[in-house]
Specification:
It is a single chain. Helix content is about 40%, strand content about 10%. It has seven helices and five strands, in the order H-E-H-E-H-E-H-H-H-E-E-H. It is globular. The chain is of the alpha/beta class and about 230 residues long. Strand 4 (about 185) and strand 5 (about 190) form a beta hairpin.
Length: about 230
Amino acid sequence: MSSQAEVRRLAAAVLDAYPRLDVLVNNVGEFRAHRHVTADGLEHTFALNHLAPFLLTSLLLDRLTASAPARIVTVSSGAHARGRIDFDDLQGERNYSGQRAYSQSKLANVMFTYELARRLEGTGVTATVCHPGVVRTSFGAEDQAASLAVMIRVARLAMKTPAQGAGTSIYLASSPEVEGITGRYYADRKPKTSSKASRNTAAAARLWQASADLTGITAEPPEPAVGS
């Protein structure tokens, strides 16, 4: 998913296999202690955590809109609250920190969802975002800071199981209780208030344009379905 060519290949396979799409759940993420670059020349964490779901959603958006009512759910993190979008150094070329890159990417997930919800108004497609909790997986194992590895081993017993961690995204994808709800952030199946930075509409629009430029996607919103 860090390769844009592979994301495009996946989207093509999905479109070929499914004449309609009712739900898209974007759940991909990583933490890397050191800066890595993708095949596209982009900083790996930003490319995987944010640009991959941005690109995949964009490529599937027409099919989702044609299938309305439909839902798009993106998995973020409570770490978004510590994030800041550095438009002058999105790729961490000048000053890289694993935690800063991760928090920025998770903030981007929330801002992307809110901007997506605004752009999808009137189409019958909703967009929500969630914090899954701290889940007992191999997250961060590719390039883990020694201090983080020790902390994870200590905290492992208190973490959610993968099934528990999936609970909120499954709820948003399938529950009739949230039908029609869009542009909201959830944790533990309840609506929560995301960070102040995540609700900056001007920054969200700027991030959308920057993401479109980095993925070669048009920044224009889709047309509402006929009769919607």
